[in-house]
Amino acid sequence: MTEAPGFDTMVAWLLDHRGSGTGELAGPRAPAPDELRAVLAGRRPDEALLRRLAPALGFHTVDLFVLAEMAVPEDLAPLDAEAAPSASRMVMDAVHLPPEGRRELLRRVRALPQEERRSRFDPRPYGAAESGPGGRLTRMLQYRNLDRSGLAHALAVLTPTYLSAATYGVIGAGKKELTPRLVTDFAALLGIDARVLAGLSGVVLPEPPRAPAPETVDGAALLWEARRLSAAQAEYAAELAKSMRQEPRSEYRLDLPGH
Q: What's this model's pTM, rounded to 2 decimal places?
């Protein structure tokens, strides 16, 4: 099985991939060179450093916490775990819309008011225990508020990957090897460059990956925005996406992009 690189190795890989040195990260709050050198030497970063390092590396902060295998702060987690089923349904309908329909749906989701958090977000691991690169990637997807069923459904309509929900539990537990296809499709759903995600996961891509289809890019953007929705808001967004579709509204075509 693919070995999980340490956080110091991943940061070194990212700096090399970006062509950056320890003193070249941009941004007014970017870590100082000595802080970066400490991370590269194996020192465990604290929460404040990760929050400053993520934007300097071009990452969502929550994803860097997952890669560092640190507890995700509550303010970076999805608002409402009960919103998960509706969020995945919204994306499944959204990718059947024309480009202008997807843009309008995204605009209306972003316009929904921010509600207060009423419960702690505490996702259950996809597998018996998260392990290795597969565990990291599935945990990143959990923080898109995708449970195993939601992930299976979203990937089936957005990418060529069509696996059972249970299989994602096996991947999360580190008992199934990550393939280039899996990494590429996970990357599309996460909105991360597939070459970057492959490098951080220790997976070699046999050829340069194709750019994600517009439907997939928009689906990933909707998933990210849906993280801040309550269950009621996500249900509204899912029903809105369904109402914007042409008939039939109860059917989903697999691997839709490019067809």
A: 0.90
